[in-house]
User: Fold this.
Amino acid sequence: MADPRKKKSSRNGSPQTNRYFHVLVSPLRLVKRTDPAAQESPASTTPGNAGGRRATDRTSFELYDRWLALSAREQDVVALTCLGYKNQQIAFHLGLSVTTVKSYIQTVCYKLNVHSKTEIRLAFVHWDFSKWK
Assistant:
């Protein structure tokens, strides 16, 4: 009979990581950062941008409108998620069950049109959630 040993991985080096690993190495510290690539320079104005608004302003307003569409409990769950809390920690902090927290996250993902907690964090990366600590 064959020996039931665990097959070794053929990969050498560090384990494979997801594509957002470089962004979320540690729990997020929400600080205001300016991205020089996102700032508009006077020489690069186009006739479409004559109003003075950037495309990022529109997405920020859309995200804020979606934030206002969330219930108070969903906003709490999103804020704690963005602060790097795990589902169990969020459940303990809010006095809920872990299943309820997962349900809130699923509902928030649907409302924000994202697919994971990582994408929720990336959507709100420039927001300050320090008052929820």
